[in-house]
Amino acid sequence: MEAMATEDFQAELRALNHTFASIAQVSGPDEIRERIDRLSAEVAEPGLWDNPDAAQKKTSLLSHAQSELEKLDAMRARLDDLGVLHEMAEEAGDPEAFEEARQELAAVRAALADMEIKTLLNGEYDERFAVVTIRSGAGGVDAADFAEMLSRMYLRWAERHGYPVKVLDTSYAEEAGLKSLTFEVSQPYAYGNLSVEGGTHRLVRISPFDNQGRRHTSFAAVEVIPLIEPTDHIEIPETDIKVDVFRSSGPGGQSVNTTDSAVRMTHLPTGIVVSMQDEKSQIQNRAAAYRVLQSRLLVLRRAEEAAKKKELAGDIKASWGDQMRSYVLHPYQMVKDLRTDHEVGNTAAVFDGDIDGFIDAGIRWRRRQDKAEAAA
């Protein structure tokens, strides 16, 4: 390896060590260890699973903390080993060892970039579980089909990462696709990651439902809200809620439940409607619907507060969440985020859940927006 190349390698290795030190400072390994000790004691308590929801949350938090600490320890070891590998290659003058060191340097650089993204998730609700709703918009049957495509995309994304998912409500369209789908992602920081996916998504393609083979544009909306917790204190007067019960149904109206266990909950002051039919009993569906309604009211309250601040500041720009991504399948193939300019040509991979690049770009974009607003 030439002297200049060696100097460049050492300079980048120093830069990567500095980046890791910054990540470790934000992440707080000592605090993570304390959290693991506390959660391990709580998980070991008798009667943990008497409350399955609370038990699942604690075990998820413990697993996430353990994984976070393992990643920090593993990265520290990789950086140390990389320095040793480079020194050994230099002493031996071995071109193959130099190449191995360069490849490992590139791999560590990419892994650190991924770890750095997690340090940007420091919003008030970023560490929460997420409730995601996909709704078909303008475009008729194509929009309903698009809503189903997006639903599969997000479910596959969660599956790729091993995140627990629970479908809460499904409303099928008459001809094909979905009117809406609501599901919960029970993973720490699910909301922080998926919140940047909220907004209007657009699909352009040759419609499989058009017998003349014409190109159609259709839309679907993605809503992401943090899962409510008891400490959030979102009280809803009983007089503000209307509850209807009905039988759960599948595609084409086929009955999948012989009792009126499904629940539709309407918040009268705002008109927000939440349907829940996943659970077996009406009581369980009512509790789940109430929790999601609380979450949506929490988000609504935050949006109203943010709008008031913008009004006082004279900021009348539209929300960033409006039409944020285009999926083009004809006359060319490309998925492009209109906020971050991140784009991918492999549309099949995107619809199969490969959306981490879009999420990471969205998180970085949001941080830049926050900094700009703070500076203003």
Q: What do you see in this structure?
A:
- The protein is α+β, with helices and mostly antiparallel strands and 376 residues long.
- It has three domains: 3-119, Up-down Bundle (Methane Monooxygenase Hydroxylase, Chain G, domain 1), CATH 1.20.58.410; 124-226 and 332-376, Alpha-Beta Plaits, CATH 3.30.70; 228-313, 2-Layer Sandwich (Double Stranded RNA Binding Domain).
- The protein has helices at 3-27, 29-43, 52-92, 95-119, 140-161, 190-194, 282-313, 347-351, 356-375; strands at residues 130-136, 165-172, 178-185, 199-206, 215-226, 241-246, 262-267, 272-276, 325-328, 334-337, 343-344.
- Strands 2-3-1-5-4-9-10-11 form an eight-stranded mixed β-sheet.
- Helix 3 (52-92) runs antiparallel to helix 4 (95-119).
- The N and C termini lie far apart (49 Å).
Features:
eight-stranded mixed sheet; Double Stranded RNA Binding Domain; three-stranded antiparallel sheet; 376 residues; Methane Monooxygenase Hydroxylase, Chain G, domain 1; 3 domains; 19% strand
Biggest sheet record: 8 strands, mixed
Task: Give the CATH class of the largest domain.
Answer: Alpha Beta
Helix fraction, binned, reads 40-55%
Topology pattern, helix = H, strand = E: HHHHEHEEHEEEEEHEEEHH
- Mean pLDDT over all positions: 85
Number-wise, the strands total 11
Shape: globular
Derived from helix and strand composition plus strand pairing, the structural class reads: alpha+beta
Radius of gyration: 24 Å
- When the domains are counted, the total is 3
Q: Please report the number of helical segments.
A: 9
Strand content: 15-25%
CATH architecture of the largest domain: 2-Layer Sandwich
Our measurement of the CA-to-CA distance between the termini, rounded to an integer number of angstroms, reads 49 Å
**Spatial strand order of the main sheet:** 2-3-1-5-4-9-10-11
Q: Low-confidence runs (pLDDT<50, min 5 residues)?
A: 252-256, 312-321
- CATH topological fold name of the largest domain: Alpha-Beta Plaits
